[in-house]
Structure formats: C-alpha cells, structure tokens
C-alpha cells in the first residue's frame, strides 16, 4: 500500500502525519510517498482512494484505473460556480470512475476495491469520461507541431512583407 498525503499536509498537518508515520512505519507492505511529482506513484498504483481532488482525474484518465472517493459535495459559494443550478460535471463523472466511500460501506472496503477493479461498468465509465474530456486523443504532439510550423510560416511571411 502506498500512502501519499497531499504535499501541503506535511506542513499544515505535520503533527498528525508524524504520528501516523511513527505508528505505521514504512515496510514491505507500506510506503509513505513524498515525491513532488505524483505520476510515478500513480503509475505504480492499482487503485486510488482519495478525497475530492484533481488527482482523481490524473489517475483515472491518464492511467485508466479506478478510484474510490469520499463525499464530493462542497460549498460552491466559494467558487466561480456558485450560481450553477446543476451539479458540477466533476461530481457527475465520479460514479462512473469508481465507488464512493461512506461511513456505511467503509467496513466493506475490500469488496469496494474488488468491485472497482473487476466490474466492467467502471472501465466503460472511464472510457465515457475520457471521451467527454479529451478532444483528438493521441494527436496532441502532431497537432501542436503543425500549429507551430503554420504560425512560424505566417509570422515569417508577414515579416517579409
């Protein structure tokens, strides 16, 4: 198991994390990850258990892996979406990516993990969410290079005039 708290937690929740790290030291079965770049640890993981965070989308859309997430509801009045009457897309996408962890199902965490890893509805959900978020999947480098070449040619032609 890899535990990777938010990097800010090592400052703002230092005492709590130090206690947890002392109570549960690293071993063959437990890694405390403090890497600044999270992509290696995400790649090495089979499933992510997270609060509502953007890392969910990095994990599931880049690596095509399921998530278990906590309650995604929060006060919209603090954000630029306070006036929306419909749920945020991010919260409607979550149930397609994995399961919600609640106080009622926490005792069944192993079953939740197994379900997220094996139920085809989550793989299908990740595909549908990916289709909603990425345009021209797999063509980014080629399209960026074509644009830069075109822009360069346009600017040099304008300069020659």
Describe the structure.
The longest helix is centred in the C-terminal third of the chain and has 21 residues, at 140-160. The radius of gyration is 21 Å and the shape is extended. The strands form 2 sheets. Strands 3-4-5 form a 3-stranded parallel β-sheet, with helices on both faces. 52% of the residues lie in helices and 8% in strands. Helix 5 (89-97) runs antiparallel to helix 7 (120-133). The mean pLDDT is 90. It is mostly helical and 161 residues long. Helix 5 (89-97) links the parallel strand 4 (67-69) and strand 5. The chain has one domain (35-160). The chain contains 8 helices and 5 strands. It has helices at 9-12, 14-23, 39-44, 55-63, 89-97, 109-118, 120-133, 140-160, and strands at 2-3, 31-32, 48-50, 67-69, 98-100.
Keywords:
two-stranded parallel sheet; mainly alpha; 161 residues; 8% strand; 52% helix
Q: Topology of this structure?
A:
Blueprint lengths: L1 E2 L5 H4 L1 H10 L7 E2 L6 H6 L3 E3 L4 H9 L3 E3 L19 H9 E3 L8 H10 L1 H14 L6 H21 L1
Parallel strand pairs: 1-2, 3-4, 4-5
Helix pairs in contact: 5-7
Radius of gyration from CA coordinates:
21 Å
β-strand percent reads 5-15%
Run of helices and strands: EHHEHEHEHEHHH
Number of helices: 8
Distance between the termini: 63 Å
Widest sheet: strand order?
Answer: 3-4-5
Q: Could you describe the largest sheet, including whether it forms a barrel?
A: 3 strands, parallel
Helical coverage, percent range: 40-55%
Structural class: mainly alpha
Q: What is the 3D shape?
A: extended
Number of domains: 1
| DSSP summary, beta strand count | 5
List low-confidence stretches.
none
Mean of residue pLDDT? 90
């Amino acid at each position: 198991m890899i535990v990777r708290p938010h990097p800010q937690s090592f400052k703002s929740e230092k005492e709590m994390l130090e206690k947890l790290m002392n109570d549960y030291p690293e071993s063959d079965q437990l890694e405390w990850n403090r890497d600044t770049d999270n992509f290696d640890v995400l790649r090495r993981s089979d499933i992510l258990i997270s609060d509502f965070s953007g890392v969910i989308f990095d994990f599931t859309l880049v690596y095509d892996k399921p998530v278990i997430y906590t309650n995604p509801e929060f006060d919209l009045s603090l954000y630029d979406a306070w006036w929306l009457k419909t749920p945020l897309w991010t919260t409607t996408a979550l149930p397609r990516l994995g399961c919600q962890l609640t106080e009622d199902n926490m005792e069944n965490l192993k079953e939740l993990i197994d379900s997220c890893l094996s139920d085809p509805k989550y793989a299908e959900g990740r595909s549908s969410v990916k289709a909603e978020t990425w345009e021209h999947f797999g063509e980014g480098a080629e399209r960026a290079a074509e644009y830069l070449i075109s822009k360069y040619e346009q600017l040099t032609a304008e300069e020659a005039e």
